[in-house]
Amino acid sequence: MAELGEKELLRRLGRFAPPGQLADDAALVPSTPTPRCGVVSSDVLVEDRHFSQTTTPPESVGWRAVMANLSDLAAMGADQVVGVTVGLGCPGSLPWHWLKSVYGGMVEALDQHGGRLLGGDCVGSPMVTLAMTAVGTVDRQRVIRRRGAQAGDWLVCSGPHGLSSYGLSLTLHGVSAEPGRLQAQAVAAHRYPRARLDVPPQLRASQPPGTPWRVAGTDSSDGLAQALHLLCGEQGLGAHVHRLPIPAALKALPDAERHCLWGGEDFELVLALEPSWAQALLERDPGFYHVGTVTADDQLLLKDAQDGQLRPFPSGKPFDHFSQTSPMETGTHGIPGPPWRDRPPVRTQTPDSGG
Amino acid sequence: MAELGEKELLRRLGRFAPPGQLADDAALVPSTPTPRCGVVSSDVLVEDRHFSQTTTPPESVGWRAVMANLSDLAAMGADQVVGVTVGLGCPGSLPWHWLKSVYGGMVEALDQHGGRLLGGDCVGSPMVTLAMTAVGTVDRQRVIRRRGAQAGDWLVCSGPHGLSSYGLSLTLHGVSAEPGRLQAQAVAAHRYPRARLDVPPQLRASQPPGTPWRVAGTDSSDGLAQALHLLCGEQGLGAHVHRLPIPAALKALPDAERHCLWGGEDFELVLALEPSWAQALLERDPGFYHVGTVTADDQLLLKDAQDGQLRPFPSGKPFDHFSQTSPMETGTHGIPGPPWRDRPPVRTQTPDSGG
């Protein structure tokens, strides 16, 4: 990067945005007339903590950064993506082709949701950091907040949990030379997660007539257990979880429950809804899971699959960014690249839409 | 920070935002009905490159980060600040009181313009990084772009240039034990710059009747010469600069011209305007400088103060983030702290406005 210089780098990165988009000091975003308003979310990814140049394909680094941010927008009820700004820190020694693939992955992820690269900043830094801010819009009358669950609400989630975490463990600890279908699926789930921006429209479509809008929700980026804690425990409520949304293919694994509850990065939405609304949603989309019920006490209890008894959640711990170790610091083994590259090659040309 | 843990850190940082502001996955920003629209800008600051824990007071780190971003909004014509999101990376060993003062400085800077801390992210990182995204609004019919200058336009800037750069050099190379008024002013200018969000309203107020809105402009964060290059050179135009906006107090210094042209971080706006509009602006606010004229050729020429001849700009180089050295890497000497701490102590309590 050092030999390119900042100006040439900016010129090259500009190709990932609509023509002229990066030509000014800041980026314009469209008007949002009432009843809509804007929604913004920021995430920071740091090399060797959230990703590794040796075990994460660069397309995945960019794709995951975008999807993690868009997942936060979805968790607020957003159903429209404007785009992202990217604050990039990188060492002068970083090869351009790596960075090019990161931005390619970003743009491909944005394309899934009609978003664009809005702008950003590039600075020198001892290691790669990727700070992203996503901008979207939401109907102000249809916002999802973490607060607002009530005892008796059903807890539903938009999909299974645990596959991404299993994929991460495979990435970190190595997979067999000829990975089976489940292993390939898990690594792909980890590398190319999808933000559930389709959920807010489904919530609107399944809202029973006459029912006021009251949806508590969050995404499961830090794990299902953490999401339930935010929706219930943090609000002085509890939960009875009678069914864990473990993917069928994962059930045979000894640590399937741990991956499901504590793994994180499945980027599904976890919601607390009035029961008739939850039922309508589950009927509308069988991909949703009814995982339990909100209770008035402040305990998170899980129904034992063997004896049917309710017991406190098995131990586990959400990822703490300031603890001594992080997933990426526990040592890595090379895994074969190409088999996981199930995504089509990323586009590096700009869309032809105007700035 | 490690002993605090992420949850406690987030709770403490939450005190710098309006109550409940950081309680969700993302932040809502107000509707922007036509003719207004949103404007967003991102900047990244990296420790020991853009600031140093040993030579930059933490309040200044936060203040400068905010003002640099708001300056980008002003350079787009924004006259309203919504707020900023902050992506913080920091090592577990960072003392809380340092970070508290950084956020205090941010909030104080935001307070100057009615903005708020909107949200953000905290991650562990080997060194402190501060990635900020500012959100504001602009009248879509009153946008300032870098492109659009025409030969014959007057080049004006909103204030003098060079004081911040001189202040930085004092910070890096040491000042006398009893700094004079100029030294104190310069260091304060470097540490507590002000974004010129007052300029867009002044442009509107001075627009001659019947003149269409055509304002080319940028901010001088990377130096006056770089701003002129963006407005003229990058657009295939040139400039005759007949007067450098060197602050009177700086004129006696041997390298005053270099500070003024190449120093950067004065965060003034540099504008190309139709002459009658420029005249009206200069009459309205005597703090503005008429620095020169846009020309049809592509040369940036400076009138020599001695013989009145036009000559190419004296050599200098805008700061390249990927070059081997950066201002903060050239070695520092301790400078006394309190004399520069001319800002009132920062507020660490939240405003009482709702989320």
From TrEMBL, chains A, B:
GO terms for biological process: thiamine biosynthetic process; thiamine diphosphate biosynthetic process. Reaction mechanism of ThiL seems to utilize a direct, inline transfer of the gamma-phosphate of ATP to TMP rather than a phosphorylated enzyme intermediate. It comes from Candidatus Synechococcus spongiarum LMB bulk15M. InterPro entries: PurM-like_C_dom (IPR010918), PurM-like_C_sf (IPR036676), PurM-like_N (IPR016188), PurM-like_N_sf (IPR036921), ThiL-like (IPR006283). SUPFAM superfamilies: PurM C-terminal domain-like (SSF56042), PurM N-terminal domain-like (SSF55326). Substrate binds at residues 50, 265, 319. Residues 24-138 form the PurM-like N-terminal domain. This is Thiamine-monophosphate kinase. Mg(2+) 5 binds at residue 222. Mg(2+) 4 binds at residues 25, 41, 72. Mg(2+) 1 binds at residues 42-43, 121. Catalyzes the ATP-dependent phosphorylation of thiamine-monophosphate (TMP) to form thiamine-pyrophosphate (TPP), the active form of vitamin B1.
